[in-house]
């Protein structure tokens, strides 16, 4: 993890070095969170997997569902797939219009403004500072 070539490659990708220790879960809370999501998925086989092929098939189905069907609260209830493809802005604009339309129809049901349906903004896993990325590129 400390080789110059790896450090150069990470800098080229705009990533910062991580000197995490083995078996320390607080280094990557996103991975830990995803692992918990997988374990507590209602379709997780209670009796375990019957083969490596079964594991692979199950995981492929899980990833498809997670990315294309599961609405994530952290990105304003759109799927990661739609967010990645840039479809989230249109989805959220349509939701905002629908909420506003219903608020105009029945204002007595709304005590406050509607939900903020603007896109979530930049999302990154373990974001590092711009200065650190520049410093890594300078060393390379």
Structure description:
This protein is mainly α. The protein has a domain at 42-125. Helix content is 50%, strand content 0%. The chain has six helices and no strands. The protein has helices at residues 4-12, 29-39, 52-68, 80-84, 88-105, 130-139. The longest helix is centred in the last third of the chain and has 18 residues, at 88-105. Pfam families: rve_3 (PF13683). This is Integrase catalytic domain-containing protein. Residues 107-119 have a biased composition (Basic and acidic residues).
Secondary-structure map:
Layout: H1 4-12, H2 29-39, H3 52-68, H4 80-84, H5 88-105, H6 130-139
Helix pairs in contact: 1-6
Summed up, what is this model?
This protein has a domain at 42-125. 50% of the residues lie in helices and 0% in strands. The chain has six helices and no strands.
């Amino acid at each position: 993890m400390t080789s110059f070539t790896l450090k150069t490659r990470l800098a080229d990708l705009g990533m910062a070095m991580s000197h995490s220790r083995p078996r320390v879960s607080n280094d990557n809370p996103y991975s830990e969170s995803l692992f918990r999501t997988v374990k507590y998925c209602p379709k997780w086989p209670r009796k375990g997997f019957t083969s490596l092929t079964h594991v692979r098939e199950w995981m492929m189905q899980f990833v498809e569902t997670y990315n294309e069907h599961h609405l994530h609260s952290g990105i304003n209830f759109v799927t990661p797939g739609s967010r990645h493809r840039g479809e989230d802005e249109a989805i959220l604009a349509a939701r905002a219009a629908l909420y506003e339309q219903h608020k105009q129809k029945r204002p007595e049901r709304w005590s406050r403004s509607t939900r903020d349906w603007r896109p979530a903004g930049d999302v990154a896993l373990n974001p590092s500072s711009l200065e650190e990325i520049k410093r890594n590129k300078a060393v390379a």
